[in-house]
């Protein structure tokens, strides 16, 4: 069994970026495995009119290698769409187009193996052994790109798990959309971009807006931070600064930065207000309810309907809303690594809260007897900050991993990327 230099688990944008940047490196062998049969990116939220929240240059390769044949611009060229894109003057591309671009890249890379599930990883005989549905595989190093999974608040979990009960995560919205449009009352829970997009889509397409409700724990339906200097917190400079902070300081800082990644795009807020205003023409109010500062504290069946117990976080008041369906736009959480690592989990160094220690170059800190490296992608927000899941840093992170595996500078990465100096040291 000839080991590859780097084996990857999961093929989302992060590991696909790594595969794309590794492809031209002649002395680097890479194999990535994904249990799905083809690349799909958030298929439940590919709504018409929704766009990426990062510019098109945040593709899989351009911010590390703008000359790559796997860039978004070359994807357009290969599809004979460069001139339409030029005249469209789009800086933020539709999500469905980004999904298609990534699938186009995956189909051009021999290193991407779909339909193969990795069940466990062990260190044996000087290499990592990956147990999979295709048999045992061998690698000198491993990169885990299993990403995040939909997170359901505890009060809603039992109903969401019950068959036939219309309590869904926004990740499954498109599959349930027609059913939701036909129900008399639907409640959307969650204030981020996904919640706003689901609410707007329901508002636009329901025959009667009455019965549509939107609640969120945040104190307002707040815009995402999108100022130019504010966005410098998504640069490698800020990542390095954040990584050097003490653990306790990092943990205090992350929740305070919620508007960097949990806010709503200005254009979506404007579209919601425009749609609500349109429905006041001729007099009256649209009959929908938007209430911030509210958390769901309980949920139970009420005959064929659902009774939501709510508490206003500032007032301290409570209420029960009866609804026909709930869409939980409550975000995603990092998938745990320990189950996949099995006994190797004991070789991973932990911080004060039991989380893996992730070094600056995205490798796990392992026991000295493990001779290979395990890298992680989109599992390091607690050590690398809010940019961990951001598409704009995917190419930089992937290039950093390629450089680390090759133990040389394959991709020259600039030493400075922001006007802001985040610390006092130079």
CA-CA gap between termini = 48 Å
Given the helix and strand composition, which structural class is it? Answer: alpha/beta
How many beta-strand runs?
Answer: 17
Mean pLDDT: 95
Work out the helicity level.
25-40%
Q: In percent terms, what proportion of residues is strand? A: 15-25%
The gross shape turns out to be globular
| Number of helices, where a helix is a run of at least 4 consecutive DSSP H or I residues | 13
Element pattern in H and E: EHEHHHEEEEEHEHEHEHHHEEEEEEHEHH
Rg is 23 Å
Report on the structure:
There is one protein chain. The chain has 426 residues and is α/β, with parallel strands linked by helices. The protein has helices spanning 13-22, 72-78, 82-88, 95-106, 154-161, 173-182, 193-205, 236-244, 247-256, 266-278, 338-341, 381-384, 394-406; strands spanning 4-9, 30-34, 112-114, 118-124, 127-132, 135-144, 148-150, 167-169, 186-189, 212-215, 289-291, 294-302, 305-312, 318-323, 325-328, 332-334, 374-376. The longest helix has 13 residues, at 193-205.
Write the layout of secondary structure elements.
Layout: E1 4-9, H1 13-22, E2 30-34, H2 72-78, H3 82-88, H4 95-106, E3 112-114, E4 118-124, E5 127-132, E6 135-144, E7 148-150, H5 154-161, E8 167-169, H6 173-182, E9 186-189, H7 193-205, E10 212-215, H8 236-244, H9 247-256, H10 266-278, E11 289-291, E12 294-302, E13 305-312, E14 318-323, E15 325-328, E16 332-334, H11 338-341, E17 374-376, H12 381-384, H13 394-406
Parallel strand pairs: 1-2, 1-6, 2-3, 6-17, 8-15, 9-10, 9-15, 10-11
Antiparallel strand pairs: 4-5, 5-6, 7-16, 12-13, 13-14
Helix pairs in contact: 1-13, 7-10
